[in-house]
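Table S4 entry, HAT C-terminal dimerisation domain-containing protein.
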Amino acid sequence: MNHSMRLAMFNEFCPLKLLQVADTRFASVVVMLKMLKLIKRCLQAMAISDQWASYREDDVGKAQKVKDMILSVRWWDTVNYILKFLAPIYDMLRVADIDKSCLHLVYEMWDSMIEKVKAAICQHEGLEDDQYSPFWGVVYDILIDRWSKNCTPLHCLAHSLNPKYYSIEWLSENPKRISPHWDHKISMERSKCLERYFEDEDELKVVKFEFAAFLGGRFPSPDALTNRWALQPLVWWQYHASAFPTLQTLAFKLLGQPCSSSCAERNWSTYKFIHSLKRNKMAAAHAEDLVYVHSNLRLLSRRNEEYVNTSTKMWDIAGDS
């Protein structure tokens, strides 16, 4: 039985296309497992069909192994378990992978992600949060090792400038939460970042006084305290932080930037599309102008009525996001 026969059998039982995900794609293993789970019933119907029985004559051992795996409840439970404890990691990386202003959210997302992964593993193993899990120990070491390589003082400073993390609403969501200025590690990294950024002693002294006033809640508007939870961080700094001009300028820079280079990588893909082998003599300035026009035309196309009413959005500027 050749590949086309197996594909015809699959298409008969499943209306979706089972496409192989390239290793270069973001979280290719997780995406593939999600696709398999989505077509679970179709695969099971195919494995118990008469067509599959004829396929067994071609390679009995391989066909039986695949059938046992597809019909195995334990195997599907394992798939569900993998997707469940990887979901917080996948969601966090997905948020950080787009061109969204999220530098000030990374530190908190990381802490929440670790707690969710631990809860999923402990629930699967029937353990309490305070009990030891060997598998969780391995996963925790991998996550912490990765975070240690990526965490910078800039993350801690951006985390400290998010007014939402000082609000009563945010602190009351989890009894383990504390404000950034009560966290010793965050405070040390924040001070390190400020000393690097403000080389002039006078400017550093000014920003320290402004940050102390920000922590003390000495705002010109009485609504500033209640709006820390209601407003977006960048909007809050624009509206309520006129008394801290130096700190406000710094907050604008940090709260308005993404935390990854994914947007630049997509821009390189557009550049590769324009500066191809057939047009390799194009000047750099000309290619840059074409990339600018191409990207902005896609952004402007989002205002079209056809784009709004189309579910596929084939011409979106950032397909994965």
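Residues 73-97 form the longest helix (25 residues).
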